[in-house]
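[recover] target loaded
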């Protein structure tokens, strides 16, 4: 399991990939749960909203899931809590989605909308406005104080803007100047909560459950006013639009539909280069689907499915970052089923960089040079620090990996990487349980016809031919 730019450990990504594939995530919740919550990630995807909010605030009281599909098509009948973020201007909330949210609240549901004002205003402004609540661009000033039901509560605030509220709202927290940053109101049979983003956690590893002591009861007491059937556990909703293009299924929803063809065109452009660079086709059974994510934050890969942020690197205005990203995420489908040791992410990125280099982007060479230079700041001649050490710095791991790939191409190329992939496919059986760095060096040695263990050892890699069952030249 792999990610790009989000900076997450692979195990956290499993939840995202399973959800994208339509597999329900189990929830640790009250039995039976009194709250069924759904976090919408169709307007703006973040790993935080894909399960981390649940872990921070709802895990003991709710069964939660995510909506990857068009919001207006989401069946909300057996949900009583809808979690929304202000979103990205590239994907506005449609009129149909706004009306869908309004009816959900009017019929008894509770909606939490988190966000901050900006220029231009985020799409969530249109959602808040139908309830007569709006974001502003005025920055809130600490400290934040609870009001009414939150009076006396300790409130952590990581910044944000104040709110502009109509007469029907009840303020729950104010800034130093008495301006609201959190408020709620009744609407029909339901409840709306509007809050500055800095009142809630945001880290993808769910390590910052700020204000959980009062956020959880604030949400639960309101959501519970709409009964749900606890026997029907919530399941994630897929991106409902698909298009089969050859062996690949493109997955998207109405909001990401305008981006789908352009992102797929990048994959179509980079694929022949990946085949040429690696000398092989993708591993059998891999890269069957491409999911278009409503984000500029990067992507992830399970090998079978790759997910790509629709406007990564300010695409389409800037093309190189998207070229590198798509080739990176797709590259994992060439690497698997045996993930690379140590440099699983660097080798995928190198494939993306090499693709960009072949397509004539000067940013490619600059990216390689910059990362190797970072490694040399810590290990000037690249012979002292073991990148396999537990405390190895990221710059050492990535910089030395790039240096190795570049140097092997210089010494044993052109096409050294292709020789490696071809040899790995030939020597490493799919059933093999693990694939170590010692194994990788042995494969490289067979690929280029020379014992590379001494060379890797000269670069401070802790590798040993006695620890692999693969023979070397």
């Amino acid at each position: 399991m792999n990610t790009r730019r989000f900076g997450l450990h692979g195990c956290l990504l499993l939840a995202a990939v399973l959800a994208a594939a339509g597999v329900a995530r189990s929830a640790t919740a009250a039995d039976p749960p009194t709250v069924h919550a759904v976090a919408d990630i169709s307007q703006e995807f973040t790993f935080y909203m894909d399960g981390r909010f649940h872990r921070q605030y709802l895990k003991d009281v709710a069964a939660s899931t995510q909506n990857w599909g068009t919001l207006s098509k989401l069946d909300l009948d057996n949900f009583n809590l809808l979690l929304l973020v202000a979103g990205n201007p590239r994907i506005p909330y449609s009129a149909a989605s706004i009306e869908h949210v309004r009816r959900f609240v009017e019929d008894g549901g509770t909606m939490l909308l988190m966000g901050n004002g900006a220029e231009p205003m985020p799409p969530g402004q249109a959602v808040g406005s139908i309830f007569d609540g709006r974001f502003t661009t005025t920055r809130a000033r600490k400290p934040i104080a609870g009001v009414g039901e939150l009076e006396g509560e300790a409130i952590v605030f990581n910044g944000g803007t104040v709110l502009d509220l109509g007469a029907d709202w009840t303020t729950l927290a104010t800034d130093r100047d008495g301006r609201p940053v959190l408020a709620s109101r009744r609407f029909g049979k339901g409840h709306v909560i509007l809050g500055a983003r800095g009142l809630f956690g945001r880290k993808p590893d769910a390590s910052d459950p700020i204000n959980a002591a009062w956020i959880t009861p604030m949400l639960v007491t309101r959501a519970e006013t709409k009964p749900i059937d606890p026997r029907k556990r919530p399941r994630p909703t897929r991106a409902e639009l698909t298009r089969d293009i050859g062996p690949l299924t493109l997955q998207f929803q109405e909001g990401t539909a305008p981006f789908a063809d352009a992102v797929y065109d990048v994959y179509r452009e980079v694929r022949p280069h990946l085949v040429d660079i690696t000398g092989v086709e993708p591993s059998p059974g891999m890269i069957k689907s491409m999911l278009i994510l409503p984000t500029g934050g990067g992507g992830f890969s399970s090998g079978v499915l790759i997910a790509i942020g629709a406007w990564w690197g300010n695409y389409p205005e800037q093309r190189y970052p998207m070229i590198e990203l798509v080739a990176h995420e797709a590259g994992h489908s060439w690497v698997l089923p045996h993930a690379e040791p140590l440099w699983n992410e660097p080798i995928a990125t190198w494939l993306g960089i090499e693709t960009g280099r072949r397509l004539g982007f000067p940013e490619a060479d600059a990216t390689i040079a910059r990362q190797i230079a970072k490694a040399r700041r810590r290990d000037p001649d690249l012979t002292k620090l073991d990148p396999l050490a537990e405390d190895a710095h990221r710059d050492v791991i990535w910089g030395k990996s790039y240096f190795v790939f570049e140097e092997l191409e210089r010494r044993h190329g052109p096409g050294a990487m292709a020789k490696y992939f071809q040899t790995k496919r030939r020597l490493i059986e799919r059933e093999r349980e693990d694939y170590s760095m010692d194994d990788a060096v042995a494969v490289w040695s067979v690929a280029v016809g020379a014992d590379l263990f001494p060379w890797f050892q000269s670069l401070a890699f802790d590798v040993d031919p006695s620890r692999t069952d693969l023979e070397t030249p």
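[recover] notes: The CA atoms of residues 131 and 187 lie 8 Å apart.
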